[in-house]
Amino acid sequence: MAQRTPEGMAVDVAVDEEVLAVWKKFRTKQKTTSAMIMKLNKEGSKIVLDELMEDTTCEDVAEELPESVPRYLIFSYRLERDDDVGRITFPLAFVYYMPENCNDRQRMLYSRPTKLLSDTLGLSKIFSCVDAEDLTSEWLQKEILSTKTR
Fold this sequence. Notes:
Blueprint: E1 3-4, E2 10-11, E3 14-15, H1 17-26, E4 34-40, E5 46-53, H2 58-64, E6 71-76, E7 79-80, E8 88-89, E9 92-97, H3 104-111, H4 114-121, E10 126-129, H5 137-146
Parallel strand pairs: 3-5, 9-10
Antiparallel strand pairs: 1-2, 4-5, 4-6, 6-9, 7-8
Family: Belongs to the actin-binding proteins ADF family. GMF subfamily.
InterPro entries: ADF-H, ADF-H/Gelsolin-like_dom_sf, GMF
GO biological process, one term: actin filament debranching
C-alpha cells in the first residue's frame, strides 16, 4: 500500500525499518559528526541504509558518494558556536545529493520520495548538493547557519 505525504499525495516508496531504527539512535548521538547515507533499493520501492559513518567529516562522506547516482544524506554535525560560552551543538542536516550527470530516470525516482523521507524523520529543511566536491564542512556549516529552521 502506498504511503501518503501530509498533503495526501500517494508515494509508492517506503522508508525501510532499518533506517528508522538507526535514525532513533542517530538523532540523539552527540559526540562527533556522523552521517547516514541512504539510497533507493534496486526496485525503487524502499529507502534503505547504504552506510552509517561515525566520527567523520563532510569530506570523508563526499569521497563515498557515487559520481552519477543520487543519495540522501543526514548529518549530525558538530557545530562550535561563536558565542561567549563557546557552546557546541549538533544540528541535524538533510542533504539531498543529486549529481548533475545522473540520468533522468534516477532524477525522477529519487526526487519523488524526498519529502516523504524528510517528513518521516521530522526534518524540515533540505539542503541540495549537485557536486560531491562541494560537500565540505565549510559548506554545510554555512548552510546550517544561514537557515532559521534548526
